[in-house]
Specification:
This protein is an alpha/beta fold. Helix content is 36%, strand content 11%. It contains 13 helices and 11 strands. A 5-stranded parallel sheet has the order 3-5-2-6-9. A two-stranded antiparallel sheet has the order 1-4. Strands 7-8 form a two-stranded antiparallel sheet. A hairpin with a 4-residue loop joins strand 7 (238-240) and strand 8. The chain starts with a helix and ends in a 7-residue tail after the last helix.
Length: 372
């Protein structure tokens, strides 16, 4: 008995240290496994239920811990080719699991979230050399109006491209904003009223009109600057000047027959949906004319006298310098040209020719533009 007890005596110190190390290592491994099983959701909150049974990091002594558990897979799509496993640090793993930040709506003009591209609710449809560019530039100051800067010519030249193409040209607008575009040739295009009506019967139409004789001279002056070899204004205006026969086939003369062109529009749109801007008053009282435009569009009167100053060199009003610019906003060099000199007798003949058309136009729209 004594010899047996002697052989089974207390363990040697080296063996005791090994047992203590094994016990400590077992506790450490158990804690590590428990921590790894508690995966984190997207908000960084620990959860036990539904957590993937996976392991990260090597086991003690180079052996795998819990060999029956599957390895963790990285978030997102699987890589195209296998790569050597790595052990990311805790901050890196948390960053990989965190969702990408979402960009909210912004009012910055460069943001892709700035509203939606919509078909225009309002159009400046005419007339050429009447002041349409001025109206467009003035109304673009309004925060509730977004306007296309170029003329798309959709309803006269590009209608075959379709409404989706037309919509793609428009600026992005918020729900509270109005989309607007300008193409002055619409007013004299026979098919334009029907095509616009088919897009939306609620479209608001703006027509900028001007004394048809002055408008024709301005039109000719612009053409002459591009084609210096064209015939004289007198030669293009009359078939027979002696008999007073005006050539209405010349586009510069034909555009000024406002009453005739308006008939096509009134077949599709009520007069209440068409607003007429006086090109003359737009020069002498830009704030007053723009106040009426804003009322017609249904937006608050934001554009007032404080936005304008009269440019004596150009001979028409310009927008004052905005805070974001070093220079005032005036129309380009192509605007405000000095008109060519026309024989006063020719002007008188054309005034007499336009008189009955002007009177009919006044009566139809209920405004006297005082062109006589």
């Amino acid at each position: 008995m004594v010899s047996v007890l002697g052989r089974a005596g207390p363990p040697q110190p080296r063996r005791a240290r090994r047992l203590l190390f094994a016990f400590t290592l077992s506790l450490s491994c158990t804690y590590l496994c428990y921590s790894l099983l508690c995966c984190c959701d997207d908000l960084g909150q620990s959860r036990l239920l539904g957590a993937p049974r996976c392991l990260r990091g090597p086991g003690a002594g180079g052996r795998k811990l819990l060999p029956k558990s599957r390895p963790c897979e990285p978030p997102g799509p699987a890589p195209s080719a296998p790569s050597a496993p790595s052990t990311p640090s805790a901050p890196a793993a948390a960053a990989a699991a965190a969702p990408a930040p979402r960009l909210g709506p912004s009012n910055h003009s460069g943001s892709p979230k700035l509203g939606t591209k919509r078909l225009p609710q309002a159009l400046i449809v005419g007339v050429k050399k009447g002041g349409t560019r001025a109206v467009l530039e003035f109304i673009r100051v309004h925060p509730d109006v977004r306007a296309l800067g170029t003329e798309p010519h959709f309803f006269d030249r590009n209608y075959g491209r379709g409404l989706d193409w037309y919509r793609s040209l428009m600026p992005r607008t918020l729900d509270s904003q109005i989309t607007l575009e300008k193409t002055p040739s619409y007013f004299v295009t026979q098919e334009a009223p029907r095509r616009i009506f088919n897009m939306s019967r609620d479209t608001k139409l703006i027509v900028v009109v001007r004394n048809p004789v002055t408008r024709a001279i301005s039109d000719y002056t612009q053409t002459l600057s591009k084609k210096p070899d064209i015939p004289t204004f007198e030669g293009l205006s009359f078939r027979n000047r002696t008999l007073g026969e005006v050539d209405v086939s010349w586009n510069a003369i034909r555009i000024g027959l406002y009453a005739l062109h308006l008939e096509s529009w009134l077949r599709y749109f009520p007069l209440a949906q068409i607003h007429f801007v006086s090109g003359e008053r737009l020069i002498t009282d830009p704030a007053g004319e723009m106040a009426r435009v804003q009322d017609f569009l249904g937006v608050k009167r934001f554009i007032t006298d404080k936005h304008f100053y009269f440019n004596k060199t150009k001979g028409f009003p310009c927008l004052k310098k905005p805070e974001s610019s070093l220079l005032p906003r005036c129309l380009g060099k192509s605007k405000g040209r000095t008109h060519v000199q026309i024989d006063p007798d020719v002007i008188d003949q054309l005034r007499e020719f336009y008189r009955p058309y002007n009177i009919k136009f006044y009566e139809t729209v209920g405004q006297d533009f005082r062109w006589e």
